[in-house]
Amino acid sequence: MKITHILAAASAVGFLASTTAMAGPEAEVLHWWTSGGEAKSVAVLQQEFSDNGGTWTDMPVAGGGGDAAMTALRARVLSGNAPTAVQLKGPAIQEWYEEGVLADISDVAKAENWENLLPAAIAGHMKCEGTWCAAPVNVHRVDWIWANAKVLADNGISLPTTWDEFNAAADKLMAAGITPLAHGGQAWQDATVFEAVALGILGPDGFRKAFIDLDEATLTSDAMIAVFDQMRKMRGYVDGNFSGRDWNLATAMVMNGEAAFQIMGDWAKGEFMAAGKVPGKDFLCISTPGDGYLYNVDSFAMFAVKGDDKKAGQQLLAKLIMGKNFQKVFNLNKGSIPARTDVSLDEFDSCALLSSQDMATSNSNGSLLPSYAHGMALRGAQSGAITDVVTAHFNSDMSSADAVKMLVEAVKNSM
Ligand code: BGC
Predict the structure, then answer these.
(1) What region does 66 belong to: left with phi over 0, alpha with psi -120 to 50, or beta?
(2) Whose CA is nearest to atom 12 of ligand 1?
(3) What are the structural domain ranges in the chain?
(4) Residue 221, Cβ neighbours under 10 Å: how many?
(5) How do residues 227-267 score in pLDDT, each as one tens digit?
């Protein structure tokens, strides 16, 4: 063999060796965290991943609530090219598991003792037939009212604790020329307001019967009619440009005093915090009127992919997601509280502490409930059927009685 060939072969080996050494954990991560507070939060994970030798390929799909992200995911899986890790939650995790496309992350979960670090309800969402198929990052609460402190003070309004008080405050604000409710007319946002109203009016047991058991008597009850009546009032409290508005732009309306209230999960707090606003001073939080707590746990599922680097990326990502420091820093930015029970809340604000206390109380009295609007309570077909009715009612002059009839039909047809 000529020396040049030997050198070429040697350098090829060297090249291979060095690329092998250079390559390492890889992850293409599909998520829908594109607002200010959300982007700041996901950057924490990205940073930790690269600090640990990982190469992160970002696949953000804008669109609050994740509908667009889920459409993108379906297209990728159908073309046989699933992303490595996907922001996925609730029963959708199980639905993808049943398609046979998820990776098993039980090794990491066992090594890291997840079973003992998570509340049983959250751990349950992360398991598929006993194996671990997703890793949780947080607990978001959905049933919140966010308010501009100065607007309320200037108008002599206190935070409402009943829906009647909410309506009285909103009427007063309307008379003063202020938009009472900052809202974005997108189906998932309509559903977010609807489920908060429903929890308040139906109560925790009624909510469970309606949105978990899909109980016909509850879906057609007078109480459900009252829920739609309140939604009709809510429609009167939004401004004329609400249609299609993104949720974070609605949060900005509360921030700059254009509107008084927003009903939204505590990712809205992530926006206030990213803008340097101070809870209790610039903005206020209170749970929506009524008992109970609607939880929404963000998590990542790993999809079955080929290649050791990608598999290593999944293991690393799963481990980092449940890391104690990550759960703290991520949730300080995101507006949520850690999923892990052993993370100190010392650095968290008053809204987060309220969330944590209320979660514990609700857990002990049976009123800790999964959010239907954020994909924690029902499979896609059922929650989609309900949301279609909620949106059709909100955007028309449909009567509450007709909405209830349509609701029960839609639910039946979705089974
Ligand atoms: C997710 C949050 C996200 C919000 C708005 C919710 O469904 O759980 O993490 O910030 O949608 O996009």
Answers:
(1) left
(2) 64
(3) 25-140+297-351, 142-295+365-414
(4) 17
(5) 999 999 999 999 999 999 999 999 999 999 999 999 999 99
CA of 140 to the centre of ligand 1 (A): 8
How many whole angstroms from 404 Cα to the centroid of ligand 1?
Answer: 27
Q: Is the whole model's pTM more than 0.85, yes or no?
A: yes
Evaluate: CB of 267 within 6 angstroms of ligand 1: yes
Q: At 1, is the secondary structure helix, strand, or coil?
A: coil
Ramachandran region, residue 25 (left: φ > 0; alpha: ψ -120 to 50; beta: rest): beta
Q: State if residue 26 touches ligand 1 by the CB under 6 angstroms criterion.
A: no
Identical fold, 25-140+297-351 and 142-295+365-414: yes
Q: Does domain 25-140+297-351 have CATH number 3.40.190.10?
A: yes
| Whether residue 374 has its Cβ less than 6 Å from ligand 1 | yes
CATH of domain 142-295+365-414: 3.40.190.10
Report the distance separating Cα 298 and Cα 244, nearest Å: 24
* Minimal-distance CA residue to ligand 1 atom 8: 298
φ and ψ at residue 61, rounded to 5 degrees: -125, 105
H or E segment at 140?
A: strand 140-141
